[in-house]
Design goal:
Spore Coat Polysaccharide Biosynthesis Protein SpsA, Chain A; 8-stranded mixed β-sheet; 2 domains; single chain; 4-stranded mixed β-sheet
Length: 325
């Protein structure tokens, strides 16, 4: 049973619904809501779905009811991010929806950019953009960009070829059509790490994907994030990525299957090795680097272009050297 207990007058249809899934987020959610309040507008709908076992996060959220067009829904029975987001998408009243995790941030100009994106391509299934990577204190560490053409519909074949190597589309920066999300089945609950990656492919079957160069959201890295804690189970971490690769590899042309598969396999091995190294085990790192050498010059170029290895790794290295986790 759901209980909406703050704000959220459900009258005029909003132009955008923002979903904030929360679980024991009292350390971060205030800063996240501050960043949203700085951008807020009357035609924005914000749905916070709190699955925490206690009221600590909810009490913080309630303090923003007079600053944000906010609806707080307490659902302790929804025990993971995927179920919270899928529930909120069903509840959303806007045609276009976006989401932000409890520890991420909106940046100045986010709403203006989103309005332009939607006005320029209202039928697009997905709008994507770069993200600013920040540390636990919101200090900038780097940018994560997508290797896609800007401000035009990305050809499906190009998207599949590059996205199979690595998920470079970061959820806090995207906007999607609600009807397409529902038609695609939403986030697969069992894919705790790769559910969004899987969904980007499914959405691309239902409409165009547009990539915009504006940086309008920040992704926070810290020792308690799901990607850090979850990736410590290395076997399951690898399985999550292989499910997506195996499921969507048939999307690309046969002549590209071999080079894309090699680059994608190298990417998975590097990702697992980096996760092991971050937990103190360096043995797998050498074997993974050997996989890159075996790719040859063209394969290495493909891998580096599509994996965004340096853009993903250097911010985490800087955060680790600074003692963030």
């Amino acid at each position: 049973m759901s209980a909406a207990d703050a704000g959220g007058g459900r009258g005029t249809k909003p132009f955008l619904t923002l979903i904030v899934p929360v679980h024991c987020g009292e350390k971060w959610v205030g800063a996240t809501l501050d960043s949203i309040a700085a951008e807020s507008a009357e035609d924005l709908e914000v749905i916070v779905v709190d699955g925490s076992p206690d009221e600590a996060s909810a009490e913080i959220v309630r303090g923003y009811a007079d600053k944000i067009p906010l609806e707080l829904v307490r659902r302790p029975d929804l025990d993971n991010l995927r179920t919270k987001v899928n529930f909120a998408v069903e509840r959303a009243r806007a045609s276009h929806v976006c989401l932000i995790c409890q520890d991420d941030l909106w940046l100045p100009g986010r709403l203006d950019s989103v309005r332009r994106w939607i006005a320029g391509a209202p039928d697009a299934a997905l709008h994507a953009a770069p993200v600013q990577i920040v540390d636990q204190d919101a200090r900038p560490l780097g940018l994560l960009r997508c290797p896609l053409p800007t401000d035009i519909a990305t050809p499906k074949e190009l998207l599949a070829e590059r996205l199979l190597v690595q998920n470079f589309i970061c959820a806090p920066a995207v906007v999607f059509r609600r009807d397409h999300w529902i038609a695609a089945g939403g986030l697969e609950v069992d894919l705790w790490y790769s559910g969004d990656w899987d969904l980007w492919f499914k959405l691309s079957d239902l409409g165009a994907v547009h990539y915009h160069p504006e940086v309008t959201a920040a992704f926070r890295i810290h020792g308690g994030s799901l990607t850090v804690t979850g990736s410590r189970d290395l076997a399951d971490f690898e399985r999550q990525m292989r499910i997506v690769l195996d499921r969507h590899l048939p999307r690309i042309a046969p002549e590209l299957s071999e080079p894309v598969t090699r680059a994608a396999n190298a990417s998975i091995k590097i990702n697992v090795a980096l996760a092991a190294a971050s937990d103190g085990s360096l043995a797998a790192l050498g074997r993974a680097l050997l996989q890159l050498v075996k790719l040859g010059p063209r394969g290495l170029h493909r891998y580096l272009r599509d994996s965004r290895l340096f853009e993903r790794s250097f911010p985490r290295l800087r955060a680790r050297l600074a003692g963030a986790f």
